[in-house]
Amino acid sequence: MLNQSELSFLSKGEPVDHFLLVKKFEIRLTKNGKEFLSLELGDKSTSSAANLWEDASGFKSIKNSLAVGDVVKITGSMDEYQGNSQIKIDSIRLTKQSDDVTPKDFLPKSLRDLNVMKKEFTGRMEKISDTDLKSLMKILFSEERFEKYTSVPAGKMWHHGYISGLIEHTLEIIRICDLMCDIHPQINRDLLVCGAMLHDFGKIEELSFEPVFEYTDRGKLLGHIVIAAMIVNDEINKIPDFPENLKNNLLHLILSHQGKLEYASPVVPKTLEAITLYQADELSAKVNAYKNVITNEIKPGSSWTKFISLAGTDIHSHGITNKSDDSKKTLFD
Amino acid sequence: MLNQSELSFLSKGEPVDHFLLVKKFEIRLTKNGKEFLSLELGDKSTSSAANLWEDASGFKSIKNSLAVGDVVKITGSMDEYQGNSQIKIDSIRLTKQSDDVTPKDFLPKSLRDLNVMKKEFTGRMEKISDTDLKSLMKILFSEERFEKYTSVPAGKMWHHGYISGLIEHTLEIIRICDLMCDIHPQINRDLLVCGAMLHDFGKIEELSFEPVFEYTDRGKLLGHIVIAAMIVNDEINKIPDFPENLKNNLLHLILSHQGKLEYASPVVPKTLEAITLYQADELSAKVNAYKNVITNEIKPGSSWTKFISLAGTDIHSHGITNKSDDSKKTLFD
Amino acid sequence: MLNQSELSFLSKGEPVDHFLLVKKFEIRLTKNGKEFLSLELGDKSTSSAANLWEDASGFKSIKNSLAVGDVVKITGSMDEYQGNSQIKIDSIRLTKQSDDVTPKDFLPKSLRDLNVMKKEFTGRMEKISDTDLKSLMKILFSEERFEKYTSVPAGKMWHHGYISGLIEHTLEIIRICDLMCDIHPQINRDLLVCGAMLHDFGKIEELSFEPVFEYTDRGKLLGHIVIAAMIVNDEINKIPDFPENLKNNLLHLILSHQGKLEYASPVVPKTLEAITLYQADELSAKVNAYKNVITNEIKPGSSWTKFISLAGTDIHSHGITNKSDDSKKTLFD
Amino acid sequence: MLNQSELSFLSKGEPVDHFLLVKKFEIRLTKNGKEFLSLELGDKSTSSAANLWEDASGFKSIKNSLAVGDVVKITGSMDEYQGNSQIKIDSIRLTKQSDDVTPKDFLPKSLRDLNVMKKEFTGRMEKISDTDLKSLMKILFSEERFEKYTSVPAGKMWHHGYISGLIEHTLEIIRICDLMCDIHPQINRDLLVCGAMLHDFGKIEELSFEPVFEYTDRGKLLGHIVIAAMIVNDEINKIPDFPENLKNNLLHLILSHQGKLEYASPVVPKTLEAITLYQADELSAKVNAYKNVITNEIKPGSSWTKFISLAGTDIHSHGITNKSDDSKKTLFD
Amino acid sequence: MLNQSELSFLSKGEPVDHFLLVKKFEIRLTKNGKEFLSLELGDKSTSSAANLWEDASGFKSIKNSLAVGDVVKITGSMDEYQGNSQIKIDSIRLTKQSDDVTPKDFLPKSLRDLNVMKKEFTGRMEKISDTDLKSLMKILFSEERFEKYTSVPAGKMWHHGYISGLIEHTLEIIRICDLMCDIHPQINRDLLVCGAMLHDFGKIEELSFEPVFEYTDRGKLLGHIVIAAMIVNDEINKIPDFPENLKNNLLHLILSHQGKLEYASPVVPKTLEAITLYQADELSAKVNAYKNVITNEIKPGSSWTKFISLAGTDIHSHGITNKSDDSKKTLFD
Amino acid sequence: MLNQSELSFLSKGEPVDHFLLVKKFEIRLTKNGKEFLSLELGDKSTSSAANLWEDASGFKSIKNSLAVGDVVKITGSMDEYQGNSQIKIDSIRLTKQSDDVTPKDFLPKSLRDLNVMKKEFTGRMEKISDTDLKSLMKILFSEERFEKYTSVPAGKMWHHGYISGLIEHTLEIIRICDLMCDIHPQINRDLLVCGAMLHDFGKIEELSFEPVFEYTDRGKLLGHIVIAAMIVNDEINKIPDFPENLKNNLLHLILSHQGKLEYASPVVPKTLEAITLYQADELSAKVNAYKNVITNEIKPGSSWTKFISLAGTDIHSHGITNKSDDSKKTLFD
């Protein structure tokens, strides 16, 4: 269990006595031809450059065994080089069992409690009325897969790009979809909710995130949409008498959920549930993305982010006080 | 008050004794050089062609006074010409006061009860906490404007394209926005809800809908987005000490709500409220559009519409039974 | 076996004594309220309108049983209505067993001999060196599937849009791919040729073509690309120790073969084989399409087609004599 | 004749005793106000930075006469600065006659033997049957022009971007075109092959490549497509009775060979030969480009290139063993 | 010399005694199998359908000799069929020498006096100071070519699409260019004005307009831009010592004048003169197009045209009185 | 009043004794932990980096009070660092009243005399015939607003991006518009000229330019187009009986003047005046932009700029002598 101050809080000159994740790693030569390690070290708050010189304690033992994704224990102090923070390393060692830290401790993570989210998800699953769909969901979200599903981020960047981001995102979509079903009884609620649960399911194979977020070869060659379709197709084929029509429509929700061909969906939404899922996904994703950008990209003294290319604009934090309190919450109560 | 069977229910040969709206109207000549009227007549269910020959009762009195948008009383029978229904007219007359019918009776209308919607809207308005915004809303949605606002369709076609479509659409957006505020306390709820209420407000001047839906010259030259911004700007300027920051942000919500420059927004969404409003608008609009298209454009024996160019695809009604009943409704209750 | 003159050769006034395919079919009413059938009848050369009146021989027996895709035997004569040919029907009957005709006889068909093409295909399959791939191909192109695969058109229109069009198209691509492998030994020949064989394999489930070319529900909801990927994935999973890397790369060829996201490939070509397959597919398709358009769309006395929207231009037949004879054939022999 | 190890093989510390091409060149000042030369030097394997200080042997004699494109003889050693290789220069001199080196020796070059390619090209030219076209080709590919044509690269980057790249590329296209003519006898083989030979002919004036690849003013203002059309037009006008139709169609092949207006073709392909040439060009170019990128842009230990913007993706080298040997070569032999 | 009322002024029932141009022509059969001619006849004001029955005077003599582009003398009367005007023909004959009419009399024509325009053009040519350019212009605009140049329309539709439209359009551009030269002395006035004169010069070979506007094969295969470049290149090559730089820049103006690759310019504007010419061309063309559309496409009682796809909008005639009189004309006098 | 040599003329080693504008400003730490100021200083000719060390005269007094937009008096000398100019500062102080310099003295400025431009503008205003429009213009261009209007640049970059750039640009457009009115009497001259005057009027609130060009929050949230429309709407509403039609058309000119939705106009040009204004704006803007780029971005010894992304090309200065003198000026005099 990690118990140390966040790296981003350390000022120039303060001592460093921290476990940190190795994010980049390269062996280089000084002008005199001596080897040194050029590192990037970080925790979930930030990253910092660091050079490990051959006279640092631990240099020899670590030089040939270190890899990106390792956690190291550092002592030293915060320094600065050309305006950027840099860690001056006095000693370094790899973690050992007894340190009780894992690379995951150093990755950004959903702010929502994971157990609460799991319970919310399984609770919603229980309320599915269609027995074919319910059986399928239980198989798909079985132990090992469910662990992975509830850990994976929704992406490498932009929205919900942190540990357990996918389940947080999916739960938002389900709430939006349920609201749309309240408004439009023509929507098949079970089908839509299952589509929402599965829409990014393929990310469990598309993304690896230990030690760092990365796309797998399989992920890059097939994409999460087709991966999900193939897994779901496999599992349905094992269920006797699963209705063909239902199968095609569920697969259609997965395949079309990015809404447009140019967003990598091989088919566009062609059913009422498919258009609902696509638009609910967009709503959840874009609002989360703007919220994160406002939090992370506005510098003190400013109310604007830099230009955010995925949004096509710089984004503004207006600072107008939110006067509506909880008693004013309303879905037209 | 209109009390007659719907035109779409009449089969070939059945008698017609109906009030109908004149949707098109042209004086033409027969091969023998005699005048006749080529008409399109309809109610909210459908429209039908009809030729009025000079020997029909009422021809003379009506020929020079008739105009598109008039309601006429017809007797005759349903006929067919080249596969399309056509009304054979025996007699025709203009409506009179005592008939108690108005052109509005012949336009498609929201299926929701208007009074319920009005109450829902004003009730939501009451729950606004920010006093500047609440005052402004009350002025903007004053008697006469409110009447118009609650009558106007959201558009000529595609989504919510019927009487009181705008308020139905707006109420959906508000519910979606309130849900997003529950999920993200960083969103300024009052600001967002007011933006939702005002986003299509300019349509009260952009569209005329009596007797038929039509864009006004002002609407075509300025567009509903700028019309709304100018009205809101005018009213804010009359309120002493309305905060400049709040004003700019509220106007930004109106201006950016179509999300992209190519969709006629002069600025793209730059705040958390603006992106939420845009995506909530999209969600409400697209789901309504698909629902309507499925209802109106699928012929008996088929499960597909024709190609719908605004959706870029044909749309499918899968017919899978909705097994989720009301007891399964959930926003993670 | 069908033995009759082609419909397109019949002039006005000539007798008709033909088997023809029913392509459209609707029951309509005359002005006097009598039923008649409005038909479109055709063979592989062309189609023609025809009205079947109640006094025609066979009207009663056929009226309620007829369906699109049936073959009927007609006697009558060629007529004309408003400049278009029309068949005047004297008598009509459904085909019977002994007529020995099938709807397929009335669909356009590849000009190449099917058995030659089958032999070419299986011969090429035999020359695959990689044993994993060769086994897989033999399973995929097993009896029933191979029958379907060698019958299906490559599409509803534009290129190779006729019976056995897919195999004709695939054989062209294989020849182009083999040439590219000769030029570039870096290309993995077995992988590429298998990708070529499978690239449009999903069309066996996407298209039905009996009695007329039509997309299936499954085809429209999933698309032939994902259908193929799912079938291939299924069969590979049954082969023990099929290499994961090979599997992912073969699936990548299927998924990326349309080259761009906006052409409905969920991933773009990311390997040397993938880019080769995409460009070879384009070359075969576009040249075939232009050839067909020039054959079918140029009217006598003109050297230009109408504007062809898929090509973005009208297309020209220059009529310059081809002076190169077979002795001049060269691949730099 | 150049006989020295490739620059890319030299490690830090190794002596340099090489002829190298000057690729960039700037006179700068040290902090103390002394002049030095900031250089980029290279051979066909790679380029490296080098600073020439005023105490180096040869500094004075070379300072004012040096120019980009010169070849210099260097002695010194390989060094490194901020992670990039840098040459430490001890002495420098310009080449002299007796060194027997030319700038061309330092540019990347086709891996195919130039004489073989020339013979292949002229051999193919001999097989043209149409006498008008054959005469024209012989004039166009006369001595001096043919020298230039067989030296020029096909472009500054992306595909076939090396000395004699254009002829290598053209020969590939011709082979593809000949194959397409075998498949489709409707294609005019002579016309198509001449179009292939001429399609990038304008590059002999668009690009200068001695001492380094560069676009000429004329090339930038007119483009190689129009340059080629003007030269061919000029030469045709000198041939009596060259058929007008043939002339227009040959020029059309040159003008339309980039396939789309946005790719700088002033007309799109409108004939069977034109579409064949465009797609054959694409096939040759894209496959060559991917092959080069895989060779040059994948770092040891990785199987992916960086993101390649012209391809819109990163590109993968799967490393699957090519099991097909020469005995399996097939064009359906 | 043509002296008759315009066809568009004739009402139903009025006698027709007119020379008219044959715009379409087809031999058809009546239901009884008798031949008749289906015609489209017109003058520069409008066109009208007409059927020529075999009992009309002149039918036999004309049936086999008539062709599109002929002028015929008609007697008969204006009629109407399904709401469209139709000419009822009593007698028909081909024109003869003594009628003194030519097909050109029936094509729309510039409203400006041709001789005034010719004088304006040659006058401007005289003021060119650069002697190389002036010589070239005089050669290019020599007798025969100048006749053609001053007759040709600027296009088949949209802007200046009438006889002598090209010179009218060119004179407008020259005036705009001269103004820009007054504002920016950095622009080379002679070069720009010559570019303006030549920018659409290729239309003399791209378009044929007798008897009706049509693109030539050469025009469709090469496009007017390249045609002009080739003619100008030819003529320059005959002038000794014409400066290479000037030649390339003049050709660049022709090639780049459509401003963007997707508008069929093979190069984009790269010089100050080129950007000026492109924008001046746009200004002249778009204003002319809107003016024509307002004149031709607004029906009585309306102030809006239909949707004009080339403009992407319907266009409005506001009817606001122009209060500025000639005394208020100003270029900041 | 500023009287000093331009910064861009100073060579390495020359003394600096200049007032300069502070364009960037950051407090940093040396490796030894001492504070220094990292500055960017400039005048209208160029900008240069400068480090202010703690031993410089004035360091202490200035460190905490300095801000971007201040003018400082510097003594020191021109230096160079890594090839870029850098100012070595000996002493620094803030300006005082008696120095008689303002930040505006350090911003680029129109080369035209401001008073001449003002007179030209007001003179043109006087010639407006329509009394409603003339009154409105006089109110809108009243004292304070006119001052701002005649100071503001037309943009931050690309065209007319300097003090008084907007009025210079507007005057060019007016001249072009007046010429178009001479050619086409159908254009309403008063309406068009007023539209030209107002088209970028909103920039007076969109841009702040003291001390440096910057977009305001209001400008970014609403855009100059809507800001202008709201101001003009406000002022018109105060004028009794201003014609509704005229108001809508004037507002339409402002709203549509960027010509396309994707260029941020909420409506496209729908009137003859609107299309004229858009194209005149384009002509003035693009020519000015090319002229500036040629002036500023071509290095000695070259005739090409770097790639200019807003133009989509590199731009050429051909250097052909302008032989046309003033006596040859012509608008067809």
Could you give a short description of this structure?
The structure is a homohexamer of 333-residue chains. By secondary structure, chain A is α+β, with helices and mostly antiparallel strands. Chain A contains ten helices and nine strands.
Give an overview of the whole structure.
The structure is a homohexamer of 333-residue chains. Chain A starts with 14 loop residues before the first strand and ends in a 17-residue tail after the last strand. In chain A, helix 9 (244-256) packs parallel to helix 10 (272-297). In chain A, a hairpin with a 4-residue loop joins strand 8 and strand 9 (313-316). Chain A is α+β, with helices and mostly antiparallel strands and 333 residues long. Chain A has helices spanning 59-63, 114-126, 131-140, 143-151, 165-183, 189-198, 203-206, 217-238, 244-256, 272-297; strands spanning 15-29, 35-42, 47-52, 71-81, 84-94, 207-208, 214-215, 304-308, 313-316. Chain A is globular, with a radius of gyration of 24 Å. The interface between A and B is large, with 67 and 67 residues.
